[in-house]
TrEMBL record:
It comes from Luteolibacter algae. Gene3D superfamilies: 3.10.310.50. This is TPM domain-containing protein. Pfam families: TPM_phosphatase. Residues 49-174 form the TPM domain.
Length: 195
């Protein structure tokens, strides 16, 4: 299976295109250590569904965990984490989401870079912001426009503060998206074999 791997990503702070392995953004000098100094301590995250804000009821958390387990059974390399947390409004939301994804290392310490098949859904119910952060291993499969589409689908539920419903829709959409890209990849594989 050959997958196109992007060599560049957008800086989460200033959106400049930077090399994946760059230690810092040449435009704004954002780096992981510098971001850590800016945003402070890592919140304590419960596995799979972490809500530090108390917006989700226990039953909601259990339902969402079941949904995540079902998706992870279908896609065993995938590690999914939902986070609801209040972030400081001083910094761009994408920077908080990027930093949290890296700091939490939900894929496990050995799974950095292209071995990272983790995906984090980050929601701030106070800022009314949401983001989906895929690990580098998933980035080539999950295009930003497809991920934005998932956020748009769940947007109305989030806006009416129905967090459980929004997350349920988002995870459903994500499962469908993963299913469609896994079929596309098989198509790529067959296509290559013909050459
Ligand atoms: Zn930058």
């Amino acid at each position: 299976m050959s997958v196109y791997l992007p060599q560049v990503i957008h800086c989460p702070y200033c959106q400049t295109l930077i090399q994946i392995d760059a230690p810092e953004c040449p435009a704004c000098r954002l780096s992981y250590p510098r971001t850590s100094a800016l945003v402070g301590a890592l919140p304590r995250l419960n596995p799979m569904v972490a809500d530090t804000t108390g917006h989700l009821r226990g039953a909601d958390v259990n339902r969402l965990k079941k949904q995540i387990l079902k998706i992870q059974r279908r896609f065993p390399q995938l590690v999914l984490q939902v986070v609801m947390h209040r972030f400081s409004s001083e910094h761009p939301f994408s920077m908080h989401a990027f930093w949290l994804f890296n700091a939490a290392a939900i894929a496990g310490e050995g799974k950095r870079g292209r071995k990272n098949h983790a995906l984090m859904v980050v929601i701030d119910p106070f800022r009314m912001d949401s983001a989906i952060v895929p690990g580098y291993g998933l980035e080539p499969l999950l295009r930003p426009d497809a991920l934005n589409h998932l956020l748009e689908l769940s947007g109305p539920a989030f806006e009416s503060k129905n967090w459980e419903m929004g997350l349920n829709l988002l995870l459903d959409g994500l499962e469908g998206l993963l299913e469609s890209v896994s079929i596309v990849n098989e198509g790529v594989k067959y296509g290559e074999n013909e050459f």
